[in-house]
Amino acid sequence: MTGADERGVPGRPAEAAPVPAPRVAESRRRTRIVLAEVSRAGSRADRTRSELTQQTRVGEALVQGLVRAQLALALRLSLLVLIGLGGLPWLFAIAPSVGRVTVLGVNLPWLLLGVAAFPFLIAVGWAYVRLAERNEQDFTDLVHRPEH
What we know:
Blueprint: H1 3-7, H2 35-39, H3 44-53, H4 57-94, H5 96-99, E1 102-103, E2 106-107, H6 108-144
Antiparallel strand pairs: 1-2
Helix pairs in contact: 3-4, 4-6
């Protein structure tokens, strides 16, 4: 028997007509409930993110740790620049013979302070950016680390 033949057979229920969907007032908004979000609500990473967003003591301590790490990095590299560039005038004052050396007809102090200083500063800046990004990545990994 085909579907058309079954419709007219006594004792068989007739096919159900499609039920129209109830009309919802346009002012109401739908609420989407997803069970997957409920099952992972207690994870450690979520608690840590919550601590950060709610600015609790734990979240504040985590952010202060990141700020301290970034500050320590900045101070170390500033000290490197201070010694590297600030030490050159001291070197030339202590050893005047070094200040009188010429390279390709240009005095060594002019070459070091006028030419070599720029690549040095670019290298320190590049190192700072790389190390600061590493600090931020370590912080992000700490926040998003799954519970063991």
